[in-house]
What does this fold into?
Amino acid sequence: MSFDLICDYLLSPVFIRGAMMTLLVTVTSLFFGILSGLLLALLQGARFAAPRVLVLVYLWLFRGTPVLFQIIFIYNVLPGFGIRLSAFVSATIALSLNEGAYMSEIIRSGLGAVKQGQRTAGLALGMTRAGVMRHIVLPQALRVILPPMGNQMIGMLKTSALVSVVAVQELLLAANQTAAANFRYFEALTAAGIYYLLLTTLFMIVQAWMERALDPKRKRRGKARRPLIDRFIPSAEAR
Amino acid sequence: MAMSKHDEAPGVAASAAGLKSEPLLKMVGIEKSFGTFHALKGCSLNVAERETVVLIGPSGSGKSTLLRCVNLLELADKGRIFFNGSDITRDLKNAAAIRREIGMVFQNFELFQHLTAAENIMLAPMKVLGRSRADAHDIAVELLAKVHIPTKADAYPDELSGGQQQRVAIARALAMKPTLMLYDEPTSALDPEMIREVLDVMTELSSEGMTSIVVTHEMGFARRAADRIVFMEGGEIIETAGSADFFGGSVNARARRFLDQILH
It folds into this structure.
């Protein structure tokens, strides 16, 4: 066991590129995953049956099979139909489609948590449906959505290791290949583990920051710090 | 039950106003069904400018449904609705524009939980009318004073009492400068000691000439503020009478029975 070697690995281009690739796969898949999740969630609220059935089939397929299966399927089966995609693109597509299925359920529950009466009140003020969604429903739904979405984001960071199966040079594959050359598994995997922890920590910080940004009462808290007990028990004089 | 002395005065003023022009709102033969439930069976109602009409009747009689048909939150199956002279019955394209003219206050307040009292009032003027933030804020400050809670601009809804929340909701509706106000059981969700402060604001608005339709069980308010009382039962308008006549006893037997029940 050598700490110097761990440090060498941490600073080596192979590991840095691997970590960057992990981050890139994760962020890209999350972006498209959240986008398709939002689309699926809105389609589920559609007035007509056809889009709702389509969404159900989608959820059934992508939640009903392993992600690993989906990655391998898209990479190996699509070329048979003449669709040739790079390992990175097909891996990202698989992860995005899979993530969309889970995100749509999270977003749907968030939208459902905003009472119908809030929408009615917005409409009664003369706002359009889109305006009500943007200014009234989404800001309230986001606060419900964020904690489970944070879970999904950190989960995605770890799931991204699976794309090594189609030879995308991400962090785990880089570590595994490095170790295979000299059998220093402990050092290589420790270095990879440190990178994973750094990245998940980064995600947690981003999540905490977003939750704070969405807390409507943050401004006031910044101005005058109230005793902790007051914040948990709404004071009587406020009424 | 408290009774003000000038019971008849508003009724007389309103019928004079009603005579001189077309009513602001005219509903003719409104029918509405939910599945097999026939909620409204040919209701007709005129409301003149500056008039306050109180809708009473047992629960499930169609009062709230009739109210929600006015600003197209529910679409009437049959019948015609004229507002400000134009036929709005099927005018879903302009629903948003029509609703801007018609303020609505709900039983459960429905303040936007993520916004302060002031921001609740500012939202529609900014996003619908395109007013600047500063302008909208001036409107909010002015209206909060009007509903007697000038110090609560920065409070969030969950920091306000029910009575305060409902008064912010009234201010929010007034911010669009509506020509007609709809109140859907505005005091039914309130603790008894807070009912008065909300009714006082509504009474003030009515006496300033705000045209209003109020669904309520508050007979004291009906006596004080209403020009006309409309009694509904089973989806039909059974009786329409001036406030003085209605409470003076010259009413239909079914309305009499209902009054006896709620006045004990």
Summary: Strands of chain B lie at 25-34, 37-47, 52-56, 78-83, 86-87, 102-105, 180-184, 212-215, 228-233, 236-242. Residues 110-177 of chain B form one domain.
